[in-house]
Amino acid sequence: MTQNRPLFLPDRRTFIAGIGATGLAAVVGCSADGENDGMPQADKGPESPDLAELVESGELPPVEERLPATPLVVETVESTGVYGGRLNTVVLGQTDMPYVKMTMGYEGLMRWTPDWSETIPNVAESVETSDDASTFTFHLREGMRWSDGEPFTAEDVAFAANDVVLNEDFAGAVSSEFLSNADGNATVEAVDELTVRFTFPSPNPMFLQEMSTLANAEALTGHPKHYLSQFHLAYNDDAEAEASSAGFEHWVDHYIARFEWWDNPDVPTVNGWVVTHTLADDNEVVAERNPYYWKVDPDGSQLPYLNTIRHELVGDEEVMLVKATEGDLDLVTRHINSLGNKPVLADGREEGGYEFIDLQTSFMNEMVISLNLNHQDPIKREIFQNKDFRIGLSHAINRDELNTAVFQDQGEAWQAAPNADSIYYDEEMAKQYTEFDTDLANQTLDDAGYSERDSEGFRLGPDGERIRITVLIASPGPTPYMVDAMELVAGYWNEVGIDTRAEPVDRSLFQERTVASEHDAGVWNGTGGFRDEVLAPLYYLPSRTSIVAWAVEWAVYFGSRGEEGETPPEAPLRQMELYWEMESEPDEARREELFREVLQIAKDEFYTIGTVRIPLGYGTVANRLKNVPEMFPTAYRYGDPAPTNVSQYFIGADPTSCPRAVPAQLGTARGVDDLREG
Q1: pLDDT tens digits for 141-189?
Q2: Backbone angles phi, psi at 104, to 5 degrees
Q3: Rounded to an integer, what distance in angstroms lies between the CA atom of residue 219 and that of residue 223?
Q4: CA-to-CA distance for 21 and 171, rounded, in angstroms?
Q5: Are strands 468-475 and 187-192 parallel, antiparallel or unpaired?
Q6: Contacts of 96 (CB under 8 A, 6+ apart)
Q7: What b/e readout covers 14-25, taking b as 16+ CB neighbours within 10 angstroms?
Q8: Mean per-residue pLDDT, 95-104
Q9: At 110, is the secondary structure helix, strand, or coil?
């Protein structure tokens, strides 16, 4: 049996006594002023001054009664901070609301370390794993409370698991896959007030990783039973009628609407900030410090340091770019941080009062081209499944020109393969077929069986008709440059006799057509390059039925474990068997070995065509915002910036007094150069 515990967790009495013995501790070299959004204090006690005032007036219990017996200690990046101030950022339309969760949410039983190297206890004080990885016992923090002061207990976790996540009424409304494996669902039991046990019917060694992803982290810690049970039919016979009166078709819809803390200020949370204004109020989400937050800094002072976080709703990227260059945004890591915008942002740094930070992307490719290997047209299916056809197309791409014209010489030629800093890095896999050679491309396509051409020089398929490929590009897509990049590639392929056209389509239509396998090909950026190779093997074996959909019928077979879909050929079928075995293998070394076999087959089969990899992305951070790492990972499954511990960010006045630093897990354990070079 293994145990996973934080390394340093003194009890609450030790924290409070330590602070009380010294009075107010001065923060050396990092004084602050709040400018337009609240005056940060230069001195720091056991709690923020505004909460101390509420305690003094009798409106709030003392801090030692609000903290759990063993608060989680958050190690700071630069220094201990000061209380006060507001972090300003934006969301780009209502579909961007997950970013609110990524900045002030992500408080699950487990979480990623800041460098994304492992998963560690968070809301849970510790976790015990059985030797066969089928049983996981979580021990919660004694005295931990929801933001309304009610106790957080094992009953809350069991309610979330049994009455919501595993409840068939919620199918499609919440993520549930992480609480099941090939042999069925987990049994979830509240053993006592502070202990909850998950028992799977067979080994599930990736459970702790799965529950640490952004999508799953809050699924078990975001359902306060004392509040949400009133909207649940199992606890309220009138739930359906009340949902109808509130304008909902089903009680589940009503429940989900009340559960979403970024849109419902009434629901208690365990987050560092509690929403006070929603988009419905004034096109912004504003959240203020949670007085019952259960984390402290190394001095024992209750976090968070920041009083407020504000997310303003903006309509387009141009507005966001203007706000960034004018210094209105404290942290930007998405949407406008493209290569094309970097010169604009660079020019605005001095006047806007911000600087660049590095983002260690999990993407292994800026654009992967996926031919539809399960095409509904049997002729195109035959052509696209021909590996030599794909190799010929790959050799036809001038990646150096593509890199210069679209990516400003920031990238390097790369296939759909793990990054150089991945434990699964394989240089041959990354570089195979990336040589630009029109003669070799033509010869390979000839040898593949497509040497016959029409009067215009385009190659003919086995039916005597011209081979045509329409490549769908989602608009808006994950990055703005894909249309330009794919139009260049289409030109290269036309030159070797493949009639190719790039077609931008609405993102919803893109998804609809890829799900239905009604496309010739599509492009998307390449996940699974660093840290998420196993969790997101989308390009390594057919496992995705939308967007990254190069073999939908095989992916359906994979997802249903052979009960639906089309039985794939020997190679992808073997990959699936290896992956299924890996999912139930308790030994970590053996799991790594199995996944290397999956990657070897992917290398041999060459399913998709990569273009260019850019090793590092970038973001911007205000000079006044302290304790932000100078480099951190970026990926949806990581959920940045939340794992960097936003609760220890603070506002500082002197931009040179607290130079940007790499946190211990990013710097001491592994240097910046190590991370860049792998």
Answers
A1: 999 999 999 999 999 999 999 999 999 999 989 989 999 999 999 999 9
A2: -130, 15
A3: 8
A4: 53
A5: unpaired
A6: 335
A7: ebbeebeeeeeb
A8: 92
A9: strand
Q: What is the 3-state secondary structure (H, E, C) of 127-160?
A: EEECCCCCEEEEEECCCCECCCCCECCHHHHHHH
Rounded to 5 degrees, what angle do the CA atoms 347, 353, 356 make? 65
Our CA dihedral for 252, 254, 259, 260, rounded to 10 degrees, sits at 120
Place of tokens 């016979």: 237
Tokens of 671: 């240097």
Alpha helices in 316-398 (DSSP H): 317-325, 342-347, 349-352, 378-384, 387-395
Residue 262 tokens read as: 């970024």
Q: Is the peptide bond before 633 cis (omega within 30 degrees of 0)?
A: no
CATH code given to domain 365-613: 3.10.105.10
Question: Distance from first CA to last CA of the chain, Å, rounded?
Answer: 32
3 state SS for 206-229:
CHHHHCCCHHHHCCCCCCCHHHHH
CB 289 within 8 A of CB 272: yes
Write the DSSP symbol of residue 335. Answer: S
For 570, the enclosing helix (H) or strand (E) is helix 570-583
Kindly list the domain boundaries of the chain, sorted by start residue. Answer: 365-613
Q: Which residues contact 192 (CB under 8 A, 6 or more apart)?
A: 154
Measured in residues, the chain has a length of: 678
The answer to whether the beta carbons of residues 269 and 123 sit under 8 Å apart is no
Locate 564 and state its tokens. Answer: 């639906």
Q: Is 596 strand, coil or helix?
A: helix
- Rounded to two decimals, the pTM is 0.85
Q: Are 568 and 557 in contact (CB under 8 A)?
A: yes
Amino acid at 221: T
Handedness of CA 432, 435, 436, 442 (dihedral sign): negative
Interatomic CA distance for residues 204 and 290, integer angstroms = 35
Print burial letters for 480-504: b (CB count within 10 Å at least 16), e (below 16): bbbbbbbbbbbebbbebbbbbebbb
Q: Is residue 121 a contact partner of residue 5, using CB atoms and an 8 Å limit?
A: yes
Angle (CA) 257 259 262, round 5°: 85
Q: Distance between CA atoms of 118 and 28, rounded to whole angstroms?
A: 32
Residue-wise pLDDT for 314-345, tens only, equals 988 999 999 999 999 999 999 999 888 999 99
Return the DSSP state at 524.
E
Distance CA 296, CA 308 (A): 17
Task: Choose among 106, 199, 200, 197: nearest CA to 157.
Answer: 197
Among all chains, which residue has been given the structure tokens 């698991």? 161
**Tokens standing for residue 443:** 């010869």
The two three-digit tokens of residue 444, written as one number = 């390979």
* Gyration radius of the chain over CA positions: 26
Are the beta carbons of 112 and 643 closer than 8 angstroms?
Answer: yes
